[in-house]
Every structure is written in C-alpha cells, then in structure tokens.
Amino acid sequence: MARILVTGAAGFIGSHLADRLLARGDEVVAFDNFDPYYDPAIKRRNLAGALRSPRFRLVEGDLRDRAAIRAAMEAARPDRVVHLAAQAGVRPSLQRPQQYVDVNVTGTLHLLDAMVAAGCRRLVYGGTSSVYGASGQPPFRESDPADRPISPYAATKRAAELLCHTWSAIHGLRVTVLRFFTVYGPRQRPEMAIHKFARLMLAGQPIPCFGDGSSVRDYTYVDDILDGVVKAVDHDEAWGVYNLGESETHSLTELLALLAQELGVAAQVDRQPDQAGDVPATCADIAAARRVLGYDPRVPLREGIARFVRWLRDELAREAAAVDPARGR
Ligand SMILES: NC(=O)c1ccc[n+]([C@@H]2O[C@H](COP(=O)([O-])OP(=O)(O)OC[C@H]3O[C@@H](n4cnc5c(N)ncnc54)[C@H](O)[C@@H]3O)[C@@H](O)[C@H]2O)c1
Prior knowledge:
alpha/beta; 13 strands; globular; seven-stranded parallel β-sheet
C-alpha cells in the first residue's frame, strides 16, 4: 500500500485513476481546483465513489498557487505523485495561451518544487502525443524529436516534460513521463471527439468535422491508459519516457461510422476547414512501454465505443431524471 498524491484527480483520467488505486488498497490524496474548463459539477460526480473511501482525501487547490501545493505536499507526504492536472485541449489553447503557460508550465514547476521541499522523489507525469507535432512520421517513437509543437497546449506540455527532466537531473527526482494518445471512455471530457459527437448524433444535430475526414488518431481506451499509469506508478527508474496508445489508427470518417452504428443513428456531417493546431495523424509505437512497463493494451476501438455508449446512455437517463424526476422512475 502506498500514499499517492494525484493532481487533476477530479478529471476524466484522474478520477478513474483514483478509483483504481483505492480499489487495490492505496491511499489517495487528490489535488484539484475544479477548473471551469468544463462543468465542475461533472468533476464532483467523478469523485463520488472515491469520496466514500476512508483512504481518500480531497484537497481543493490550484497549482498556480505555490503555497497551496506546498502545503498539500507537506501535509500528505506522499510516496509518489501522479501529475495529471493541466489545461487540456488543443484548440482553446490558441485562444488562451497564457493560461496554458500558467497552469501547465508554472503549475508543474510549483509541483516539482513542492516535491523536493517535502522529500518526495517519485513522479509519474501525464504527457501527450501532441508533443510529436505534425512533421514526424507515425508511428511515433519516444526517441523522435519533440521540438516542433504546433499548439500552445503541445508546447506547454512539452515544456513541463523538460522541467521534469531538469528536476530529475538537479534534485534526483525519479520521473516517468507517459505520453497518452487520444484517450476515451466513460467520463471522457464533454468537448472531446467521441463524447461530443455521440451527444450531437443522439440529438439529431450536425457534427462539425474539421478537414476532409482523413485525419487519423490512435484512440486509446481509458482502462488501457490506467493499466499503463498503474504499471508506471509501481515501476521505479531515474528517468523514462513511454508512449501509451493502442498502436492502431482510425480515420475520423471511420470513427463517425462506428459511432453511428453503435448508437443506431445516422451522422450528419458539417464539414469545416482544417484547424490550426490539429495534427494530421497520431500513432504510438508502444514497444518501449511493453518491454519496460509490461504495458499491454487490450480494448480495440469497436469494443471501447460500445462500452462508452453504454455509459453515455446511463448518463443521459440520469440527466433526464435530474431535469424531470418522473422520467427516472
Ligand atoms: N484525455 C486525453 O485524451 C489526453 C491525451 C493526452 C494527454 N492528456 C493529459 O492527461 C491529463 C488529464 O487529462 P483529462 O482528459 O483527464 O483532462 P481533465 O480536464 O478532465 O482533467 C484535468 C484536471 O486538472 C484539473 N486542473 C486544471 N487546472 C488546474 C490547476 N491550476 N490546479 C489544480 N488542478 C487543475 C481540472 O480541474 C481537471 O479536473 C492532462 O494532463 C492532459 O494533458 C489527456
């Protein structure tokens, strides 16, 4: 049993991680500011199960507040930290770059300093495939250059990786960086493709699709990501960087067809021009994660979409019941 501080623990991936760590007997200290990027009420619901555990503690705090994360770290004295808090999202980062720098870069700096001050030496950092940019040739390897980000989101997430490396060199922090490839599943952020598309399809509304539908992504089911994160939490090394993806790609057109089939509705597509910041393709080379961490993703897109749609139907029923209690009976 370990005590693990998880930043961003109220979010999509973080809340699943908290549940997973609690289920195996760890203590979890969650640090999250319930940022309004999407409805904070969703994040409170994400933590409903975790809050029932006596081994779970929630600290509401902002990583931009140096004293807040220092105090949380001093009080918790965790064995390990998993850093998932971030301003996520590529497109909004073009509108609000300063906020992305403040949270993703300065916030990470505050966290690293707080770890050193509290004598916590082990960090797992939640990075992103966006750091590979648009110029490389997929599948991406960890040894590929990640020095040409094309969005403020990617640049700030890469800057945070570099800070982690610097703190490992200067202060002996032992850091594993995990680069996640488009994660989906229950609790997925509502503005992300799959979640957003599914709700629009069910409402009979057109789906804004950027580009001609040929852009491809390595969609990774959240349970597979969690397996990788937990394996990294249990691993110890001075420094390591690993891709976590399914290592399979699907075009936007294929994704829409799969979703429409699972939902039993037709997709109306509203074609929009390519968006600045979006990369044309992602695909993970996961050989290093398999070899070193024992990562072994198992959920193909069709199965993952089916599981996501089951969850979404339950969510929609719950939302309808909240608006009109008679429908929930
Ligand atoms: N979801 C994906 O497909 C994906 C892909 C690649 C990388 N990632 C990375 O994984 C991590 C989690 O992503 P997610 O999809 O779960 O996002 P999310 O937005 O659901 O979760 C992020 C959490 O961080 C919290 N947070 C934001 N700013 C904060 C601050 N200043 N102080 C404290 N907490 C703050 C938010 O309230 C939220 O609960 C992020 O670091 C993201 O960059 C996600």
